[in-house]
Write a structure and sequence with these properties.
By secondary structure, this protein is mainly alpha-helical. The chain has 17 helices and 4 strands. A hairpin with a 2-residue loop joins strand 3 and strand 4. The longest helix is centred in the C-terminal third of the chain and has 19 residues.
C-alpha cells in the first residue's frame, strides 16, 4: 500500500512475544474460517448515531477501552486516543459521515474476504490465518499488519478512493494484499536504515508479490490505478528499475503518493507485481510458484528466474 497504509504495515516493527507466537502457530491452531471482526466499528457507529455525530472524548475513550484486542493494539501502536479521534472528527467530520457507506458494505466485504482467504489456504496450505478487524480510528493510518493480524481503519480506507473507486472491491483487495504480507518473511522483518537488503528490488518484490496474491485470491490488485499511471512508460520504468534495483534509497519507488497530483507513484509495486506475475505464468507447478513468490529467499535469483523484462 501507499505510505498511508504501509507506514503501519510495511517496515514492520519487530513483533512482541504474542505476535511471534502467532507467527509460529500452525494453520490448525487458527479457526477453520478466519475471524473477520466488525464489532468495533458497529459499536463506534452506534455511539456516533446516538450522539448526532459528536461523541465526547470520554465516550470515545470508553469505545477504545472496550474494544477488541485488535483495536487496542491499533490504538497503542498508532497513538489513537479519544481526544485525537474527537479532534479529527471536529476537523474533518465528512470523513466519518461518509464512512457510513462503507459500513453498510461490510457484510459483503466479510463474505468476499472469507472466500479469498479460503482460496489462499487452498493454494498455499501452510498459510497462517490470524484475525482481520475493521475499526475506527483518527483518520489515519489506513491500518496495520503484523503477525497478529490485519486491522483496517474504516474511515481511512473508505476515504482512499484514489486506489479504487469501488469501495467494496477496495476493502476486499486491500485486505487480501495485506494478508499476503502476513505470509512473507521479508515483510515481517524490520531492516535497519541503510541495510543493503532493504533496496529497491526487495521492497518492490515484497509489495508486488502482495499485489499479485490479491489478484490471485480476490480477483484484482489492491490499487489498479497504478497501471493506469504508468501506461505508455512501461519499458522506461522497467529499465530504470533494473538500473536502480540495488539502491537502498527507494523513496522514488515506494510510498510516495501525493494527494492532488497525477504523477506516477508506488511504481515499485507495479514492477514487482509484473515480475511476480511473470514468474507464476512460467511455472509448471503453480503451488510451488506461489510458495516461492511469498517466501522468496533470494529476490535477485527470483528476478532472474522470472523471465520478466522491461516492457512486460
Amino acid at each position: 500500500m501507499p505510505k498511508l497504509f504501509r507506514a503501519a504495515s510495511g517496515r514492520l516493527r519487530k513483533p512482541g512475544a504474542a505476535a511471534l507466537l502467532a507467527a509460529c502457530l500452525p494453520l490448525a491452531a487458527f479457526a477453520a474460517e478466519p475471524e473477520i471482526r466488525i464489532d468495533d466499528v458497529e459499536r463506534f457507529y452506534a455511539l456516533y448515531n446516538a450522539t448526532d455525530g459528536q461523541p465526547s472524548v470520554a465516550q470515545l475513550d470508553e469505545y477504545l477501552a472496550q474494544g477488541s484486542p485488535s483495536l487496542k493494539e491499533f490504538a497503542q501502536l498508532r497513538r489513537v486516543t479519544g481526544e485525537r479521534i474527537a479532534a479529527q472528527m471536529a476537523a474533518d467530520p465528512a470523513v466519518y459521515r461518509d464512512a457510513r457507506k462503507c459500513l453498510a458494505l461490510l457484510p459483503k466485504v466479510k463474505r468476499r474476504v472469507a472466500a479469498a482467504l479460503h482460496t489462499l489456504g487452498e493454494l498455499y496450505p501452510q498459510a497462517k490465518f490470524p484475525p482481520v478487524a475493521i475499526v475506527v480510528g483518527r483518520g489515519k493510518p489506513v491500518g496495520i499488519t503484523n503477525p497478529s493480524g490485519v486491522t483496517i481503519g474504516l474511515e481511512a480506507l473508505c476515504a482512499a478512493d484514489f486506489m479504487n473507486p469501488d469501495p467494496e472491491d477496495r476493502f476486499v483487495r486491500v485486505i487480501a494484499h495485506e494478508y499476503a504480507h502476513i505470509q512473507q518473511p521479508a515483510a515481517a522483518e524490520e531492516l535497519p536504515q541503510g541495510d543493503p537488503r532493504a533496496n529497491v528490488r526487495l521492497m518492490s518484490l515484497t509489495e508486488g508479490a502482495a499485489e499479485f496474491v490479491a489478484e490471485l485470491i480476490a480477483g484484482g490488485v489492491a490499487n489498479p490505478g497504478l497501471a493506469v499511471r504508468v501506461r505508455g512508460r512501461e519499458r522506461e520504468i522497467g529499465e530504470a528499475f533494473l538500473r536502480e534495483q540495488d539502491n537502498t534509497d527507494y523513496s522514488q519507488w515506494m510510498y510516495n503518493y501525493r494527494k492532488d497530483s497525477d504523477a506516477p507513484y508506488d511504481q515499485g509495486y507495479w514492477v514487482g507485481y509484473r515480475i511476480a506475475k511473470a514468474y507464476y505464468r512460467r511455472a509448471g507447478d503453480k503451488r510451488a510458484a506461489l510458495a516461492e513468490i511469498l517466501l522468496m529467499p533470494d529476490p535477485k535469483a527470483f528476478l532472474a528466474k522470472s523471465g520478466w523484462k522491461p516492457g512486460d
